[in-house]
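Checklist before submission:
- one chain only
- standard amino acids only
- sequence pasted in full

Submission:
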Amino acid sequence: MPTHPLCCDVRRIEGTADLLAELHCGEPGFAPYLLTAWSPVLAAWDTVILPDLARLLDEPLALRKPRTGHTASRRLTWHCAIRNTASVELNDNDWFELTREVVDVTGIGPDGDPAACRWAALSNTADGLDIVATVIREDGRWARLHNDAYCVCSACWGFAHDHGLDGSPPITGFYHSSPAGPNRGISRSSS
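Returned file contents:
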């Protein structure tokens, strides 16, 4: 059975800060950076401090109890790791396009939904991307994450096919890519 050019893994865990610290320990010689995020303001920062990013991502969790009267349960951090095993390298615009597709189809950040979940896409290795999100939306409700792993795999398959990563020629015609902007550095703390 052939391997897919974009390998993806979806999991839910308890701690956003711990996950971000774990992901920061990436490939030696590669400087991790924030590719994009739910907030254009955050994505425009030159340097992102990991504890600050974790606090911002988790803010809807902290506001959930006062809004809804319910305490949030465990495993509220959503993590999607995507690795490119194809011989074709993906640039930031490609990763940006794939990120937008993944957060849209999974229900993490549907296009045009102002109360969607908070998420961030981090480039931690030259051939991969990690998307981190909280599953509580801005309005305090749970995100509708039904079959999210399947949706991510489907988005990766479609992207790989459309860009010729699966051995087939890329689909030609009108192509629109959103600007991802320059690489932005990530640091563990402000000190």
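Reviewer check: The first strand starts at residue 6 and ends at 13.
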